[in-house]
Design goal:
Elements: E1 18-19, H1 33-42, E2 47-53, H2 59-69, E3 72-83, E4 86-93, H3 101-126, H4 132-140, H5 148-157, H6 164-172, H7 187-195, E5 200-203, H8 213-225, E6 230-235, H9 240-252, E7 256-260
Parallel strand pairs: 1-2, 2-3, 5-6, 6-7
Antiparallel strand pairs: 3-4, 4-5
Bound molecules: adenosine monophosphate and manganese (II) ion (3 copies).
One manganese (II) ion binds next to loops.
Length: 299
């Protein structure tokens, strides 16, 4: 699979042709797994991971497309978890695919998502969106378990929210009625599934949780304690000072650094491979983790 060798260290202001955080129609992305891979190839990416929310259902299709396009594809997903009342996402990079305890873990996540959608629907019905579940389902466009974006589209289509941002700001975003987290496992549980199944666990977008630096450090400590190995040093667009500061927190804990765009759909600010540049840091890139050595990493 080594398409191009990846460097052993992260230098400042480099682009690596790598994107280890992207979504497809297997969750809340707009492109099919094959179309996503094709776009990545067109944009010159050499190594990518498909990381749909709580599912690896798109991986087979992506793998086939990646073989044909000559792109290195790392199977993965993004697991919804909780830590101290905060919703935390953990990216699972799974070099050997879906196996081990993660099989049962994702089955549990699927059930949790189904139950959560019922709770969200009930709450939104009380807030002016009748038949919320059926409407969200219509927007999902498939039988996959529902996510908050499906409810956001329904809120906008029915005129309850004025746009997508308004739907999250008033109904679905962090701390709002439609932000239901009770069904998600503790962060350590997800890390156990991932690490016990041969994978690398990565804290997704650590700067997006509105945690203080100290609290973010405590999250990282708990994550390391559970066996987690990496953190997204760059997720989409970030403030450079915040990224440098985050890099220090990784180095202090011997955590690997991952990179991803969090791409969901064309036309948004994110595209596959588009993300802020990496600062110079002693934190090793995640592709140097021994479990990912089949990527043909170090050049
Ligand atoms: P869920 O996985 O069902 O909890 O939905 C979370 C998804 O909703 C995220 O992955 C984003 O795609 C989207 N999302 C979450 N918060 C916001 C927000 N404040 N604005 C826009 N989209 C959001
Ligand atoms: Mn999403
Ligand atoms: Mn996320
Ligand atoms: Mn994501």
């Amino acid at each position: 699979m080594p398409i191009t060798a990846l460097p052993a260290t992260l230098a400042a202001d480099q682009h690596y042709g790598v994107d280890f955080h992207m979504h497809s129609t297997a969750s809340d992305g707009a492109l099919s797994p094959a179309a996503l891979v094709a776009l990545c190839a067109e944009r010159g990416l050499s190594h990518i991971a498909l990381t749909d929310h709580d599912t690896m259902a798109g991986v087979d299709e992506a793998e086939k497309a990646a073989r044909e396009a000559g792109v290195g594809l790392l199977p993965g997903c993004e697991i919804s978890t909780r830590w101290q009342g905060v919703g935390i996402h953990v990216v699972a990079l799974m070099p050997n695919g879906l196996q081990g305890p993660l099989v049962e873990g994702l089955a549990q996540q699927r059930q949790a998502r189904i139950e959560r959608a019922l709770v969200i629907a009930k709450r939104l019905e009380k807030m002016g969106l009748p038949d919320a579940l059926a409407k969200a389902r219509a927007h999902a466009g498939s039988e996959r378990p529902l996510g908050r974006p499906d409810f956001a589209r329904a809120l906008v289509a029915e005129g309850v929210a004025k746009d997508w941002a308004d739907a999250f700001k008033r109904y679905l975003g962090s701390g709002k009625k439609g932000d239901v987290k009770a069904q998600w496992p503790e962060v350590g549980q997800a890390v156990e599934w991932i690490v016990g199944s041969g994978g690398v666990a990565v804290i997704a977008h650590p700067l997006r949780y509105q945690l203080t630096r100290r609290k973010r450090g405590l999250l990282m400590d708990a994550f390391c304690e559970a066996g987690g190995q990496a953190v997204e040093l760059v997720n989409g667009q970030q403030n450079p000072d915040a990224t440098r500061d985050l890099a220090r927190q990784l180095v202090e804990r011997d955590l690997y650094a991952s990179l991803g765009s969090d791409f969901h759909f064309p036309g948004s600010h994110a595209a596959p491979g588009s993300m802020s540049v990496v600062p110079r840091t002693a934190a090793p890139p995640v592709w140097c983790h021994p479990r990912l050595s089949a990527l043909g990493a170090v050049g």
